[in-house]
Amino acid sequence: MKKHLISIFAATATLLLQANTPNFDMVGFATLEGGTTGGEGGETVYPTNFEELKRYAEEETTPYIIVINREINTGITAYVDTTSGHISTQGAENTIASTYGEIIKLGSNKTLIGEDDKGFLNRIGISIQCKENIIIRNLRISLQDVPVDKSGENKIVAFRDGAEVLVGDPDCISMQADDESLPASQRITQHIWIDHCELYNFPKETEHKDRYDGLIDAKNDTRYVTISWCYFHDHSKACLSGKGDSDNFDRTCTWHHNYFENIKGSRLPLLRFGRHHYFNNYMKGCEDGLDVRIQSNAYVENCYFEDTKRPVFGKLSEGGRATLVDNIFKSCSKLPPECTNIDGAKQETLKESEQFEPTDFNPADCYSYDAVLHNAEEIPDIVPLYAGVGKLGSSATTIAKADKPSIKAYAANGQIRIEGGKDCLVRIYRVNGVAAEATTIATDTFTSTRLPKGIYTIQVASPHGETLLTTKIKL
Fold this sequence. Notes:
Oligomer: single chain
CATH architecture of the largest domain: 3 Solenoid
Structural class: mainly beta
Largest sheet: 10 strands, parallel
């Protein structure tokens, strides 16, 4: 009888959990200007090793839904000094066996998604450089014990063609738009949704704080990004928006329902320029939190900050601005003048130099988010329970199939002509993955502007975001 009752209680708890599951729909900046559909409509693939993952993920524009159902690393043994993280040799003092690192240069129109709680990129970072329309969901990503070089700023050491090579900064996910092979007007990264991921590194006490770089960094002209329901933990310098005081772009990012835990450093995130909506995030056991720096604008709403040294601060001389709305602070050390710990814990007021003025940016002027907004007092219960991997269930990799209208695309007198796509969104990409044209088709027939000779990828998506046609055309 007792066993039977336990089974009933367990089943009831499961049903309640399912019934109370929050709304995980995409909201925020990633939904604007055509939205973010990732690899929707493309082939669904299941890479089994790094080489297969690289082949699908780095294809410039062809849409793919890439499902990861295992740990993927390079599989090539490397030896790492546990004090510095530098590449070492087998048998040397303070040396452990690891694997060489790598970076995936993710192409446009990709969905990279983990299955259940199995998807893990281990010592493999993701770089998004002048690309667009990308979804990364339900993935665990860590660079822990990745080897770095011995000279200058740390760089990941990979092993290619029989030799060690340096492949980039030790970031879990890096978004940038500084490819000098492109004209300045084409250096844009946009429409990115990062959701339900877990990012960490567990740096050792013997290692320098710069042993690893960012968990998620955004630099240059990076637009229309949403980062939601992610679990950031055990790291030093976590997230960065803007690489320096001259990186002056209107970066637009929505951060919501993220869990920041045990970040014993800073950048949760550090903001330079741009507009940032920061709502329903939970910060616990951290040091320096949301850092409003040069001419940034942040709207901080219904968040819960606990046991954190400086949860929100700035640099008054740099003109960073933030508006705080209905947030809760508990056992925090240094707070803005108008804020108080709910538990009466001793606190100090931020130095005047660390304070900030309110912003006139209001995200409600840009998009609706009422359907996903929680009260701040709910956040400690909701966010740790649902942030990170394995919280999406089997629906994470369910791909809906629908009847598709007949759409044709062909070359005509230096232009691209599309028939049958009324009210659909058309995107035309150059061979390097940069968009040449993007618009909604107003009539049954669409003709592009006159384009230079070359090979172009054409993608037509329904008004709901489903990819209906992908093809390549030579002009």
